[in-house]
């Protein structure tokens, strides 16, 4: 089999793919050592390389596929054009049609991601497989078997609501990954060779999916690159990489350079990437990677992958397992105890099912989802659309928000700041010529032109454009990077210092390109023009660098007088019109921060949410904006600098830094992952471009805007209808409110249910019969659950929403150990009162069950008021009116029901007034002792909920 001779000492070492066409497995570069000695030597070299290689970044380091891709692209960027043909097994004429078809079968269609996602039944199974759902389904089936249809129906409804919401969210998230396949579809102009005896080069248009490695593509303005391409020829080629960087600035590409490893990947001049587009110029390139082997596919391959469950989900599962274990033990003991007394197995099992049902927090899915839905409606009023309800809960736990700069912290349009001559002094002549250039050019109006005119008008300058006629215009293009207008005076004017019919060329553009066409410089103070010297060039560039380092964008301005006949025809014939010009001065611009940004960031900081800026823009501009809005800039870093760090340094730098500039999509992802895995933070990410999709998908809370790219919105959990950070502040408050109310229910349910079941077990062992019949226990359980529906409408104390809230299984266990015994103690006190005061026995079971029914229901209903606040309930803090009304209604029903026909059906009997006097004393003692325990708990652990 033919192999290219790539092992010459004069050739750079290049990793190649070991397959007939695009080689699949990259061979490690061996720093100049030859590799033709066989696999044993290669293995030794690879082993030594692993021993001497630097540490990799875990939890966000480059994957093996990424390392192979980087090695492949850098090697081709460093190689001569002739070698590039050999590496991808192509020729200067291109591939034949037969060869292209064969490679297409070998490599598959050229799409950035596989157009597949999990089947709906797989997602449905995943959504259904939850411990609480399984418990409720099992108990529902048993309830139907034992003819307890109402309770079984309620359980099925709760399961249906929980599974439906979870299935919808996961289905929507996985389907969004298909959007990337449509991102780069377009016809591509390809050079192929045909002919049986004489190979003839022809150009054909093929679908992007049919492009294969080794194809030669021809690109023009507006074209998308169909794969990763090594340029062969280029002519003033300017490319937009906004799909990868998120920044609107363009980059020049050229085929006539050889790069080195020190150049950042996206800055390689002779490599163009799949999904980027041609802005101006033209070029010819060799496709070196397609489909899943491209840079675009590699960095976005993590999109749509299921993330591990968050702390809340893992905590719920742990609670489930604990409750299941307790349930198995307690229910088994109770069933055996009742059976040994009654010798009725059916009755014993039915009672055991009722106890198991009571131990299960049946309302948890409904309470959680109701609270999340309520939060979503509240955020919608603030022009914020919530796609994933769980994101609201995560916002309550969020303690770091990563945000882009442009359009988020800034207003996303530039304003003119100042104008200077070549010595850095303000000079009105500079502003005058800049105004005329902006006023009269009309072929391609840019925001900077509007900024210049707005500055002149708002500051009261009257430059009288009516005294000028526009003769011609040389529009802006990305090769020259400047725009020129030719003006002629209408009348003599002293302030113009020109005569009737005088013509002048005024040019504005990128400073470097303006300086390249200047041969003279004006010294305004002397009113004379001198030759442009190296000293002038150095002084002007230093002045520009000073402004750039302060975050300003700088344009240059030049002019020269023309002969009266210079016009359209002469410009077409004479390419030197923009030459030998006089340098006039500099104009500075700034994208100012939003008025609301500083206040919003301050409010987020007050609530314990730190802001980090992740941008693809320059470091100096990012620092300037951050200083304006109050973000500390003592620790900053750029993407290329991050690339060079080892594991420990990387994570330490990410932890410390607040500003990250010139980041690629994968670097944004790694920063987010590092904060999550090594910093144990709940991270939000606000982005609006395709380049942000990786970080949006990985963040705990992905946030985009309505004007963002469709792909970014697909992967975001929350969509802002306006780019205002104040909306996020409201979202954080709603998230903490939702989280707090959810935790109220969980802690209350665990304490009340465990306490109730332990009390039932003790009573069963003492009396030898079930303290409540299955029907009574289920009725009590239904009434208790109905009373908890109002919890999502409860309020939270101000101190709670001031700090991020995180799930803590250890904290829940500690909370239960401190507060759980008090419930059982109250039940035991009731049991002792019934035994000692009323002298109840096993033959007075109707009276005993009625008393136990009322006390248990009131205890479970009132406990929410002790749990929900750090303060003294009903005295220092009162619950919201829905919770108070719910408590009153359910308590009233519980007290009245023994005196009604329904009570008779349930086997309950009327209770004496003296018993209610005891309950008053009991609950006063319960709340008093509970408040003492609460204060001690807060004193030890510094928190309550």
Automatic annotation (TrEMBL):
Q: Name one GO cellular component term.
A: plasma membrane
**Topology of the protein relative to the lipid bilayer:** Multi-pass membrane protein
What are the transmembrane regions?
123-143, 149-168, 321-342, 348-373, 750-769, 817-838, 879-899, 906-929
InterPro entries given in the database record: ATPase_P-typ_cation-transptr_C, ATPase_P-typ_cation-transptr_N, ATPase_P-typ_cyto_dom_N, ATPase_P-typ_P_site, ATPase_P-typ_TM_dom_sf, ATPase_P-typ_transduc_dom_A_sf, ATPase_P-type_domA, HAD-like_sf
Q: What is its EC number?
A: 7.2.2.14
Which parts of the sequence belong to the Cation-transporting P-type ATPase N-terminal domain?
75-148
Catalytic activity entry: Mg(2+)(out) + ATP + H2O = Mg(2+)(in) + ADP + phosphate + H(+)
The alphabetical list of record keywords is: ATP-binding, Calcium, Cell inner membrane, Cell membrane, Magnesium, Membrane, Metal-binding, Nucleotide-binding, Phosphoprotein, Translocase, Transmembrane, Transmembrane helix
Job description of the protein = Mediates magnesium influx to the cytosol.
Question: Can you name this protein?
Answer: Magnesium-transporting ATPase, P-type 1
Q: Please tell me the species this chain comes from.
A: Nicotiana attenuata
Quote the gene name from the UniProt entry.
ACA2_0
